[in-house]
């Protein structure tokens, strides 16, 4: 699904964030990208989204070279990206309206796009029907995040990219949305990549965890998380041990990753 082949990327001729860096992810995988601030987590997400391009090397998604944002990739940003003058329903419909404007050109919109997609099932699935006619300023942070998820999933992506989507939410809301996202990932057979600075969230959301250190990132460090399938995993011994191991890896800004 995702193939990153020896990419190098740097900002304004500075130290490369990634240097001859490679990484692969299979279809249907759930990944968390973890690392200290400034390590390149969001940069990697934007490279996958086609919002930035590597200086060298290549990125392929579903066998296609990424040279621009692809229509089958969904991106959920940290600030939700909702239009304040539009209702919950109108925000959920925004992607569909944009695609209807372009038509099924295969570039901005999938060639099999049907403009009669109904967002109501997603509003219902995400518990947003009672708030559908309210504006973002009138609903909670968790409801705004659910609106962003509804807008994205209504477009039927095969790859879902999430940039610290739950960082501003209170703990109960964050845990509920983490659980919901994992349920939807399985239901829709999505390849999901979530960026987080939280060790606990990475251990909860990623069946595989990609660990980054301070630039330049040259090694691909992957931590398997098979225990995530356990019921009530948050309170399992395996979860606590994984969090401890990840914390050790990230000590001193990920110095252990360079050894």
Present the secondary structure layout.
Blueprint: E1 2-9, E2 18-25, E3 30-34, H1 41-49, E4 56-61, E5 64-65, E6 73-76, H2 88-92, H3 94-102, H4 120-125, H5 141-153, E7 159-163, H6 171-187, E8 191-196, H7 199-205, E9 208-211, E10 221-224, H8 237-258
Parallel strand pairs: 3-8, 3-9, 6-7, 7-8
Antiparallel strand pairs: 1-2, 1-4, 4-5, 9-10
Helix pairs in contact: 7-8
Overview of this structure, please?
With 259 residues, the protein is of the alpha/beta class. It contains eight helices and ten strands. The protein has helices at 41-49, 88-92, 94-102, 120-125, 141-153, 171-187, 199-205, 237-258; strands spanning 2-9, 18-25, 30-34, 56-61, 64-65, 73-76, 159-163, 191-196, 208-211, 221-224. Helix 6 links the parallel strand 7 and strand 8 (191-196).
Which properties best describe this structure?
Rossmann fold, 4-stranded antiparallel beta sheet, 6-stranded mixed beta sheet, alpha/beta, 259 residues
Summarize the structure.
Helix content is 34%, strand content 20%. With 259 residues, the protein is α/β, with parallel strands linked by helices.
- The computed structural class is alpha/beta
Uncertain ranges? none
Number of strands: 10
Number of helices: 8
Largest sheet: 6 strands, mixed
Principal-axes geometry comes out as globular
């Amino acid at each position: 699904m995702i193939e990153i082949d020896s990419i190098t990327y740097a900002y304004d001729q500075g130290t490369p964030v990634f240097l001859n860096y490679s990484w692969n992810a299979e279809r249907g995988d759930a990944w968390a990208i973890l690392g200290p601030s400034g390590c390149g987590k969001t940069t990697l997400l934007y490279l996958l989204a086609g919002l930035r391009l590597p200086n060298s090397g290549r990125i392929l998604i579903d066998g296609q070279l990424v040279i621009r944002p692809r229509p089958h990739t969904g991106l959920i940003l940290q600030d939700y990206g909702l239009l304040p003058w539009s209702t919950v329903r109108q925000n959920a419909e925004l992607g569909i309206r944009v695609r209807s404007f372009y038509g099924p050109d295969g570039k901005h919109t999938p060639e099999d796009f049907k403009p009669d997609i109904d967002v109501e099932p997603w509003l219902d699935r995400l518990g947003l029907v009672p708030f559908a006619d309210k504006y973002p300023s009138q609903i909670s942070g968790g409801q705004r995040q659910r609106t962003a998820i509804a807008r994205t999933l209504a477009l039927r992506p095969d790859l879902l990219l999430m940039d610290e989507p739950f960082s501003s939410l209170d703990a109960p809301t964050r845990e509920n949305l983490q659980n919901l996202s994992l349920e939807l990932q399985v239901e829709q057979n999505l390849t999901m990549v979530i960026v987080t600075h939280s060790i606990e969230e990475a251990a909860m959301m990623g069946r595989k965890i990609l660990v980054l250190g301070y630039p330049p990132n040259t090694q691909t460090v992957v931590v398997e998380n098979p225990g995530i399938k356990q019921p009530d995993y948050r309170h399992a011994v395996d979860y606590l041990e994984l969090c401890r191991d990840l914390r050790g890896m990230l000590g001193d800004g990920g110095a252990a990753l360079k050894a």
